[in-house]
Design brief:
Shape: elongated
Distance between the termini: 88 Å
Largest sheet: 5 strands, mixed
Strand content: 5-15%
Structural class: mainly alpha
Helix content: 55-70%
Oligomer: single chain
Number of strands: 12
Number of helices: 40
Length: 987
């Protein structure tokens, strides 16, 4: 593909480089004059005596490598001065790619001819790119892209040559000798900078080679490993052996699985087994940049897709952060990169260098890429921009690191252009450092050094903010020592100063952790990470009013935790999460139990937008779609739904706990989550039943939500009330599957499978508990209801309380026509004229019956107390049933109780009464949501965590629990008066 651009060397505006010194400048000019003798374009430039001449003199004085290439091959310089650079580079890349073909098509080139062609193409491209780069005609990004394209072409040509040569020698049989790699099953994966298209000027190339022995090109697949191993040794020779024409690329195959014990080419199956069972975190990071670049490209894409679950995991693996950072620390420790300097500094591996930027990016990608496919990007610059767009990093940080990255890559190129050596370290001497400064376009070493130090400090600071939170074994002026059998006196003083009332007891508990008595702290690594996070952890516990209580609950949490490395790594890297965890331990034991049972629910809390974005149905749906994308079968779909439901319930609860949303918003979010779960489970069940029992002719199915699900008022612990409606062709007798069923059994089976899908307890928990008792005839009726039976029952047999329940009915999912029909039935039933006095009597009787059979425990039984939530819900339902036809549209399906009261109460309730009811409902909803979120069972002020009491007082804007209790009594009394007054005809 020929580019549209046409950049020429003469396009530079002025001489941008200073010559190294006068001696080297004279030598460079002499060399140019010698070339000009038989190179007309060179002679013309010298005659013009303009900026281009000055540039060439400076460039050749600064780079002995470029001067030597021009001296040995002056035609390259002549061509560079005569034609557009892009045109020449395209031609060089094309010559490299077709090196395996003969020019006339009559014969196959020898291996020596292929090697020569590749080296000539590399030499020409390297020379052109160096001049374009030094002249600032190409950006560093363009330079790295061209180098990567050349490497792609060279490797692909070498692979095609080797495959074709083996075909002609009858050692294998190609599908198409004109396209040797297509369908060969031989996969070459570009890694590192080659994979991301960011090769440096004198880079080696990292490749990993896999083969499919069953691709059908080898007569004996059992010999594939040995055969392809020999082929790869020839590939390395073709690419990196130095000949009179130089070399193409130094080639490294050590990134393959277990390189110490595996051949140079590994079977696809062996590779997948290795990564699934033994793959390391550094390999996960490496495969972020992986790209099929030669051989069977289609097979390579399939292979990388199979590796996606290994690289980007469903659950966030925070231990990987520390693991990756440990590699960086080892680089510092073993290669002497502990301080920032200019002379002798390694711009790749040193502090503030290229590797820190790459690690910064790759770590964020490992954390979030499993849930945000938009972050699965190979190129460093594009990945930084994607991280900023996803709000994982600030745009300012992204721009800083992008600028730093390309400045450092530019400096790296200058170091390598001097003598075509794969170096990354700046010179130690002032003279040679001046050479690099001049090559980079600076006037002196001072300017270059100042700019370099600024860049290195910026990168180091950003990297340190992400990774380097040094382990502290003390807190301020006090000790935190928990080794040995006895308490350290200074540690006890520190604990007391932090806010612990029983420091000796707390010290004994903490020593239990460090002694490895729990599974979570049995490994040395887990205890080391716990030690690192301990000062911040104890400080956070100390800030809660009952520090001892919170720490003991955390102790119970650790005791139940199967492993601790993940958690301690997470807390060490995320101070905000540590504070939130302490909040959970001090106020919400129910959430603490959830974390202990399913630690993966903590994953979503790293999302920077968690508190900023409301958990709307669209928000949840987008994430669910991405999470379900890789599900391969029915059970995996259900497991993913269980995981997603548990995590999102937890995250909605966290938003409620932190005050990001109120009780009403939480109720809608829980209901929206339930809608999505039910819809996806329903679709999966339909498909699963169809495989065995087929479809029922003319069959239509829809799911109706009732109760708090229907009115968008679910709590963290709510079950879901459902009714399954169906219809089918009157002539149909049975389903059309391999195991046909009659209508009754078919739709019963469908309902039972849906209930099981949603509520069967599995390893990942349940999606939602299901209650079907609100269906016609309750538990005595069939689990699935035909639409005509539902219509008849509601119109002729249903009790008033069932019509009250119908006011909260809402269709969740299913066949559109059946949903519309069911909605018409519901609307028709609710719009039917009623005897207002009789309805009032029935509602009052129902409330009295509940009060008799299920009296409230105490004032905190907000649902059952006189004037509590049931009174408010019954009041709204009564108003809906007796509302004039013209006003019923103000309370459509899915309306929350508060909205129904507000709309239907206008003109029917005294404005002051209505205001009291709405205030009571808001308070009772907020309190109920918080209580159901934080604890299982009833709220008992004497037993609940102190933190929960504080939260409830905060929600109610009351100074203490006694004031809150008084407010609950006042409002409930007011509601009961309104309830009695409204239903007075029945009294």
């Amino acid at each position: 593909m020929v580019t549209d651009k046409a950049t020429r060397l003469g396009d530079l505006g002025s001489a941008m480089l200073k010559p190294f010194n006068q001696t080297e400048a004279r030598a460079a000019l002499a060399a140019l004059k010698e070339m000009a003798a038989d190179q007309s374009a060179v002679a013309q430039i010298l005659a013009e005596d303009g900026p281009l001449k000055a540039f060439l003199v400076a460039a050749f004085s600064l780079s002995p490598f470029l001067k030597e290439i021009a001296h040995l091959h002056p035609q390259l310089l002549n061509a560079a001065l005569s034609a557009p650079l892009e045109e020449q580079l395209e031609a060089a890349v094309e010559r490299a790619r077709t090196a395996w073909r003969s020019e006339d098509g009559s014969s196959v080139p020898s291996e020596a001819a292929v090697m020569a062609s590749l080296r000539k193409a590399k030499r020409e491209a390297a020379f052109l790119l160096a001049l374009a780069d030094l002249a600032k005609l190409f950006t560093p990004r363009q330079t790295t892209d061209w180098l990567s394209r050349l490497a792609d072409a060279a490797v692909a040509a070498a692979i095609d040559h080797l495959l074709l040569a083996s075909h002609l020698a009858a050692r294998l049989t190609l599908n198409d000798p004109e396209q040797p790699s297509t369908g060969s099953g031989l996969i070459v994966i570009g890694m590192g900078k080659l994979g991301s298209g960011e090769l440096n000027y004198s880079s080696d190339i990292d490749i990993v080679v896999f083969f499919d022995p069953d691709a059908g090109i080898l007569a004996d697949p059992m010999e594939a490993s040995e055969f392809y191993g020999r082929m790869m040794r020839r590939l390395v020779r073709i690419l990196q052996e130095r000949t009179g024409d130089g070399y193409v690329f130094r080639t490294d195959l050590r990134l393959r699985p277990d390189p110490g014990s595996t051949p140079l080419a590994v079977s696809v199956e062996a590779g997948l087994i290795y990564y699934e069972g033994r793959g390391q975190n550094w390999e996960r990071a490496a495969y972020i940049k992986a790209r099929p670049m030669a051989g069977d490209l289609a097979a390579g894409e399939v292979f990388l897709r199979q590796l996606v679950p290994f690289v980007f995991r469903k659950y966030l693996d925070y231990a990987a952060i520390a693991d990756i950072h440990s590699i960086k620390r080892q680089i510092h420790a073993h290669k002497g990169h502990g301080a920032i300097a200019v002379k002798g500094h390694d711009v790749k591996l040193g502090r503030g260098g290229i590797r820190e930027i790459e690690f910064f990016v790759q770590t964020q990608q490992l954390i979030a890429g499993g849930r945000m496919p938009s972050l699965r990007i190979r190129q460093t610059e594009e990945a930084l921009r994607a991280l900023a767009e996803a709000h994982w990093i600030k745009p300012k940080i992204a721009e800083e690191l992008i600028d730093a990255y390309w400045f450092l890559r530019d400096a790296e190129h200058r170091i390598q252009m001097v003598r075509d050596e794969q170096l990354h370290r700046l010179p130690e001497t002032e003279a040679e450092l001046k050479r690099i400064a001049y090559l980079a376009g600076f006037d002196d070493t001072a300017g270059f050094a100042a700019r370099l130090e600024t860049v290195l400090r910026t990168v180091e600071q950003r990297y340190a903010e992400l990774f380097e939170q040094e382990a502290k074994l003390s807190h301020g002026d006090g000790n935190l020592v928990f080794t040995g059998q006895n308490d350290d006196p200074e540690t006890l003083k520190t604990l007391e100063a932090l806010g612990f009332e029983r420091p000796a007891d707390m010290s004994r508990v903490i020593r239990t952790w460090h002694n490895g008595r729990y599974r979570a702290t049995q490994s040395v690594e887990a205890r080391e990470r716990l030690t690192a996070v301990m000062p911040d952890l104890l400080t956070a516990f100390g800030r809660s009013k009952r520090a001892d209580e919170a720490l003991l609950r955390f102790d119970g949490f650790l005791k139940a935790l199967p492993a601790g490395i993940q958690l301690f790594s997470l807390l060490g890297n995320n101070p905000g999460l540590l504070s939130l965890l302490v909040t959970i331990m001090s106020a919400a034991p129910r959430l603490a139990d959830i974390i202990a049972a399913r630690p993966h629910v903590f994953d979503g809390m790293l999302d920077p937008g968690l508190m900023a974005e409301l958990p709307t149905k669209a928000y949840l749906g987008e994430r669910l779609s991405g999470f379900l994308g890789g599900a391969r079968h029915y059970e995996e779909t259900l497991d993913r739904l269980r995981i997603f439901a548990a995590e999102q319930r937890f995250l909605i609860g966290i938003r409620l706990l932190t005050g990001a949303i109120d009780g009403g918003q939480a109720g809608r979010a829980f209901a929206d989550l339930a809608d999505l779960m039910i819809s996806e489970a329903f679709a999966a069940v339909l498909a699963e039943v169809a495989q065995t029992n087929g479809h029922f002719p003319g069959g239509r199915v829809a799911v109706m939500g009732m109760g708090k699900l229907g009115s968008h008022e679910l709590t963290a612990g709510s079950d879901v009330d459902l009714i399954l409606l169906y219809d089918h062709s009157a002539e149909a007798l049975e389903s059309d599957g391999p195991k046909p069923l009659d209508a009754g059994r078919y739709f019963t089976r469908l309902t039972q499978r849906l209930i099981a899908a949603l509520s069967a307890p599995m390893a990942e928990g349940v999606i939602f508990e299901v209650d079907m008792r609100l269906r016609p005839s309750g538990n005595k009726g069939p689990v699935a209801t035909r639409i005509n039976a539902f219509r008849k029952y509601q119109q002729e047999e249903a009790w008033t309380w069932e019509h009250m329940a119908l006011t909260r009915a809402r269709m969740i999912c299913g066949d559109d026509s059946l949903i519309e029909e069911a909605q018409e039935v519901i609307s028709g039933v609710l719009a039917a004229p009623r005897d207002q006095e009789r309805v009032a009597t029935d509602v009052a009787k129902m409330r009295k019956l509940i009060e008799t059979e299920k009296p409230p425990r105490d004032i905190w039984d907000l649902k059952l107390i006189p004037g509590g939530l049931i009174d408010l819900e019954f009041l709204a339902q009564y108003l809906r049933l007796v509302a004039p036809v013209g006003t019923q549209a103000a309370s459509p399906a899915g309306t929350r109780t508060a909205d129904a009261l507000a709309s239907l109460g206008q003109g029917r309730l005294d404005p002051n009464d209505l205001d009291a009811c709405l205030k009571a409902l808001a308070l009772f909803t907020d309190l109920s949501q918080m209580i159901r979120l934080c604890i299982d069972g009833p709220f008992d002020p004497k037993d609940v965590p102190a933190g929960l009491t504080e939260f409830l007082c905060r929600v109610a804007d009351c100074p203490d629990l006694k004031s809150l209790e008084s407010e609950v009594r006042r409002l409930s009394k007011a509601v009961r008066k309104v309830f009695d007054k409204t239903l007075r005809p029945a009294s």
